[in-house]
Amino acid sequence: MDAATREGHLKRIAEHGYTLLEGVLEPALVDALAEALERLERDLGITPARNAFEGERTVRIYNLLARDRVFEQVPVHPEILPIVEGVLDRGCLISSLSSIAIGGGETAQPIHADDQLIPLPQPHPPLVCNTMWALTDFTEANGATRIVPGSHTKPAPAYGGEVETIAAEMPRGSVLVWNGSLWHGGGANTTDQVRVGIAMNYCAGFLRQQENQQLGIPPETVRGFSPRLRELVGYGTYHHLIGHIDKRSPVEAVLGEGGDFRSVWERTEPSSE
């Protein structure tokens, strides 16, 4: 990506909260990603989560870097990563890599901001920069991401409240990039086709401990810690979401204990406002 193009995208994100890169993904890569997701859904028996945020007709596959090597190409794509680094910096981290396949008949996702669980007043410097990769055409009818341009400078919305949005329509092989403070949500799918996307999300590199507790302390040592000490070294989640592993708590996923994790979205009802 040349410097002028990159700066143009960064300017749009700064002003409007998002930018759209049409047709930047190689068709062969899009095909390979789509095929891998179809296989994983089948082999893993993935079914919808059935809550208002994740959807009742939407299939989500988490932790994709652990599933297939084809996904290694996603976080470092040369047409996307330079823009993310411009919003955050080169010290940014992968926050999550998952797929979102919105099935026919799905209702709209509650409007939200991806950083709204972080207790800082708006506006603030970007802490999160997220992307949506279109593996199928994204249309208003089939559930294209709904966005509120310019909302990245405003306080987070009431979860699920009514707000005027526009559809971020884009052809297959395109990528939507946005500041994590932007108000948005998956659209309703009124068709009989599945809208398939990959959510490649990043966070600022300083959003972690000074010493890497999870990699520095062997799991067998953590097993002997008290529950509170486990939480303090990172074997817990913040607001029942940040720090999960494939929708499980680290205690369950790494230590094989527990098993009663419920995400914030399963604990929260959308606002009626």
Report Rg. 18 Å
Average of per-residue pLDDT values: 95
User: How helix-rich are the residues, as a percent range?
Assistant: 10-25%
Strand order across the biggest sheet? 1-7-4-9-3-2
- Please tell me the total number of domains: 2
Give a structural overview.
The protein is of the alpha+beta class and 273 residues long. It folds into two domains: 3-203, q2cbj1_9rhob like domain (Jelly Rolls, Sandwich), CATH 2.60.120.620; 213-267, no CATH class. The chain is 23% helix and 16% strand. It has eight helices and nine strands. The chain has helices at 3-16, 27-44, 81-87, 213-216, 219-222, 227-232, 250-255, 264-267, and strands at 18-21, 58-61, 93-102, 128-134, 146-147, 166-167, 175-179, 184-185, 195-203. The strands form two sheets. A six-stranded antiparallel beta sheet has the order 1-7-4-9-3-2. The termini are far apart. The relative contact order is 0.18.
Topology:
Blueprint: H1 3-16, E1 18-21, H2 27-44, E2 58-61, H3 81-87, E3 93-102, E4 128-134, E5 146-147, E6 166-167, E7 175-179, E8 184-185, E9 195-203, H4 213-216, H5 219-222, H6 227-232, H7 250-255, H8 264-267
Antiparallel strand pairs: 1-7, 2-3, 3-9, 4-7, 4-9, 5-6, 5-8
Helix pairs in contact: 1-3
Outline:
This protein has eight helices and nine strands.
List keywords for this structure.
single chain; 273 residues; six-stranded antiparallel sheet; 2 domains; 8 helices; 16% strand; Jelly Rolls; alpha+beta; three-stranded antiparallel sheet
